[in-house]
Each structure stands twice: as C-alpha cells, then as structure tokens.
Specification:
Number of strands: 21
Oligomer: single chain
Radius of gyration: 24 Å
Number of domains: 2
Helix content: under 10%
Shape: globular
Strand content: 25-35%
Number of helices: 3
Order of helices and strands: EEEEEEHEEEEHEEEEEEEHEEEE
Length: about 300
Amino acid sequence: MQLLERITRTAPLGLRFWDSLSGQVVRDGLQVSAALELQPQRPARVSLTPSGVFSISEVPGLRSFERPTSDADPWSGVLPSQRLLVQVRDAFSRFVPFGVRIIAPQRGLWSLPFDSPFGASPAVPLFSAPTRPVPGGVGVVRAQVVDPTANGGQGGPAAWAVLEASVPGQPAVRSIADGQGRIALLVPYPPPSTVPLAGVGGSPLIGTSPAALPLSEQRWQLTIRAAYAPRTGLAGLPELVETLEQPAALIWADQARTHLLEQAELRYGRETLLVSGDPSGRSHPSVLFIQAGSPL
C-alpha cells in the first residue's frame, strides 16, 4: 500500500465538565458554544467526543494551526492565537450557566488557571442551580442574596456571588448565585450522629455501642462564607474565572448590618434558608445581605 497523502487535523481547544456535587463527568444536556470574544458573529465548531470532551475546532484565524501543510509538530514554533468566549448552558436547568474567556490553542484539556479545589483537575466544575432537583442523601441550603449597597444604597441582587458551606470533616460545598441572586448549596449529609445508650438512672451501659439518633433529629453545624464583588458579567453570564476569584465578602445576620452571619444549621430532610433578620418587620424577611468587603 502506498501512502498518497497524510491529512492532519488538530483541535485547538478541548474541555471536559464535571458535576461538583457528584464528581461525575457531565456531557448530556450541556449546550456549549464558542466564538471570538470581540467578534461573536464568527463562531467555532463544537463537537462532543465519546470520552466526554467538548472539542472546539474551525476557530477563525487558526486554520494554519488546525490544518498544517507539513508533517511538523503543530505545537512547535510560534503559535497563532485567538481569544475565545466559551458559553456553557444546561438544557435540564441543573447547573448555573456561565461564560469563560480562553486563549486558544491550549494543549491538553483546559482547566482553571489558579490553585483551588477545582484547579487540580483537567475538567471544568459545574455548580448546582436553584432549579436543580435535590437527590436523596443530600441537604439543601438556599438564599436570595442582596447587595444592600447596590443602586445607590437602594439594594439589588448580588448577582453571581459565591457561597460556601462546610461541615467539619467534609469538603466545602460552593455554588454561584444566578443573575437574580438566587442560590442553592447542595450539601451531602454527613454520617449520622450517635448518642450513648443510657442505663438505670441515666448512666451509660458498659459494653454497649452508641445508638444513632433518629433521622428526624439529625442536625449539623455549617460554617458559611461568601465571596462577592459587583461586576457586569460577560454576555449576561458570570465569567467563571473572575467569579471564582472574587474576594471574601461580608454576610450579614441582620438587615441593620450590625452582626455577621458565620454559621447555620443543617437538619435532615429540611431545607436551610439563610436570611438577614429584621426584628422590626419593615423589610422583606427572606433575603440575605451580602456586601463586598473583608470579614473582621
């Protein structure tokens, strides 16, 4: 057999997405698009490989890289580059939509460009949306986050704020508020707590094992943190890297902004609603005030 022609095609960008709750690779239902950031009318081609990688090719301005005319390594020498805007949405409304700026070509799978709980993985994290169904064995913490300093002090949604909840001994759970400030943190329940079995007069029985509390009485202490800085977003979506790099923010336990909210309680089978209280009853009782600034 005589080789008459060799055709080489190199994709300049590949992304794989994973569910930050389950840790599983996600491919079904994701709608991924890519285009030049400054020329969104010039889209690239996005295709899904059998391994769950969204391959981006036919990028305007990268034809010489994608279709080299020689057998030389396309990654050698000076590479052309284009700044892309990749947008990710979920047709099933499980995940918060976002955009991300990426310079292509990128060798290997793209990952977050900083050291974080997500940056070590060659996959892009997806964060649970408020509309996601809550699976079994998972609790949910909800909030309607408001920036009291927005709109000249009139207040407004703290769009794309990041909330974090952590239970001792378990990895922290994070999510991103949507454009209206709605956010849901899906927190896997820790192992059930136990209490000593009591004997006569309330004394523990020697040689017996602790008894598990009924599920209806299981509760855990959550540590709550936030990151937030007002931003305009990207094509109506949060820019993922900028969003996850937001500075620490203040979470107010009261709408008078005199006390910080740092902890909450997670109870089995019940939703936890985070709110900034208003004893006077004059303000809306179900919003959580988040304000840019470092906790004391």
